[in-house]
Amino acid sequence: MKVILVSFLFIGVAWGNLSCSCGWRNAGRIVGGKDAGKNEYPWIVAFQTVQSTWTFCGGAIVTPWHVVTAAHCFEDVEAKDLVVVVGAHDVNSKYEYASSRHRAEKIIIHPQYNSKTTVNDIAIVVTSTEIKYNKFVGPACMPSGVLGNEMVGQMLKAIGWGRYDPDRPYADRIKKLKEVDLEIISTQECKKHWSVNAAQICTYTPRKDTCKGDSGGPLTWLDPETNRFTLAAVVSYGPKECGNVAVPGVNTNVSAYLKWIDYHISQTKSQAKTCHK
Question: What keywords appear on the UniProt entry (predicted)?
Fold first, then answer.
């Protein structure tokens, strides 16, 4: 996560026009001006393996059994080896009261995902045990329709445990959750740098970006109608220099895959429901 912006805003509890409670933000303690507040964003997930506590990707809780993330995170990882960490802030701490670890039951990768072009870079991880919701753990709101050109100029909040400095690949292992605000740019502008389509959202803010290790992590939009965070995208790819070059990042537009997500939720856990307007 390259260069961090921190907000002290507390999001209220009004959610009368939502199907269920989602996307709330806790008034977490700010540490050093670079970290997100502790348990500030209840939907964030860290993916690790049974062999290592190194966080290699992120994701967003959308039901008590489902996490939406990026397909490219699991090209070399099987469900039997995957650990889903929820409620975490410092992923290396053994003393976080809100944190819990779950094993994965299944990894569902979009059938049209292309590892060469990185299109349809979306996946769903199904947990083998229920993720218990509380103040510190809960789902992001899902979009109620397709997010398109009307979102250009809006800010998305990216959170993750990815690399802070792309020039320090080994020393720069992030322990505490970071956050950064990124602006949505038009597909036309993004095509100056990448081959993208309407199922992708490009973001660019000078000297700020996601980075290696943030892949699959959520980019959420604060909906002014609900005052809650909606899952707009998951981190897909970007320049290897991260925020050090004037090149946008590319993210998977979650709203383009709502039917696919809902179908696989119903097929794996019929009782599970996402939250939305």
Answer: Disulfide bond, Hemolymph clotting, Hydrolase, Protease, Serine protease, Signal, Sushi
Judge if 62 and 192 occupy the same domain. no
Contacts of 169 (CB under 8 A, 6+ apart): 163, 212
Residue 103 inside a domain? The answer is yes
Q: For 193-237, how does the pLDDT look when each residue is reduced to its tens digit (9 = 90+)? A: 999 999 999 999 998 878 888 999 999 999 999 999 999 999 999
Instruction: Count structural domains, the chain.
Output: 2
pLDDT tens for 92-125 read: 887 888 999 999 999 999 999 999 999 999 999 9
CATH number of the domain that 134 lies in? 2.40.10.10
pTM above 0.85, yes or no: yes
- What is the span of the domain harbouring residue 217? 149-255
Name the catalytic one among 89, 99, 102, 121: 121
Q: Are residues 86 and 48 in the same domain?
A: yes
Q: Report, in angstroms and rounded to the nearest whole number, the Rg of the chain calculated over CA atoms.
A: 17
Sort 226 into a burial class: Cβ within 10 Å, 0-12 / 13-18 / 19+. buried
| Strand positions, DSSP E, the chain | 44-49, 52-63, 66-69, 82-86, 100-109, 123-127, 155-160, 178-185, 200-203, 218-223, 228-237, 249-253
Per the annotation, the verdict on 215 as an active-site residue is: yes
102 is catalytic: no
Q: How many CB atoms lie within 10 A of CB 271?
A: 9
76 is catalytic: no
Per the residue annotation, which of 89, 214, 215, 255 is the catalytic one?
Answer: 215
